[in-house]
Write a structure and sequence with these properties.
It is a single chain. With 303 residues, the chain is an alpha/beta fold. The protein is built from eleven helices and nine strands. The strands form two sheets. It has a six-stranded mixed β-sheet, with helices on both faces. 39% of the residues are buried.
Length: 303
Amino acid sequence: MTPPKPAYETLLLDRVGTDGRVARITLNRPDKLNAISPTLAFELHGALRALEADHAVRAVILRGAGRAFCTGHDISEPQPESALSPGARFRTVDDEGRPLNVNVALMLRQVADVQMYLFRMGKVTIVQAHGYCIAGGLEFAMMADLVTASTDCRFGHPGHRGLGVARNGMLLPLVIGMRKAKELWYTGDEFDGEEAARLGLVNHVWPEAELEERTIALADRVANLSSDYLALLKAGVNKFYENMGLYSDIESLTAYDALMAGTESAYEWRDRVVRDGVRAALAWRDGPYGDYGAAPKQPPAQA
């Protein structure tokens, strides 16, 4: 007898906390360090919408399987697929190979809409980050209501080094202040969980061995109130940031992200990928900064 097909290809869902009132979504592409594919984006959007309709669910934890929370978008096989309609593809170049930037912006907006759902949905959302929370993974964290992390989790947005701009990264100035936000914006620098907590980017950092248990405890503490009551509390605090222009800024950054594909740095990145492959291009990109994959290797601990 053929076993039943799993509900999702790229996600695992379970319930934790008192009476299962906390839902937990696990990004399940551990061999790709949970890089975001069109299928993952589509399935995550569907799972969030289904959980929003479940009155018994009061909070939602988003975490990653394996060695990392999420390392961003899967650039190993870039495809202009819709994040909201599997199989639909955007035409991003014309017959002469020239970019169709409006179509690129529309494609990017769909991905941003999936990430923004963490911010908009009527449940308290909590990102539980370990290993790496970078690029699109950092964007997930930016959209969540609360963030917990392991002390040694690595944060950053290396995509700002020639691949584009974080469409919802405009939250950085609201969360950590303009000066540091600009520094991270211009450099894409990497930093650890303790620095993320100092900056106010995450709520709590704990040793990785304690992260799961303590994140569930935090979610369960939040979930003492009913889901509809929490939804109104969330809507109320979100309104402050919406009135500051959050949505209009994300629309603008989506257009800027599409325009960046026609910049000198973006051309140089793509040329490197085509000529040398993704791994070599990443080493070239991060080498001058000495972080991410180009960070100096730590010597093994002595007995």
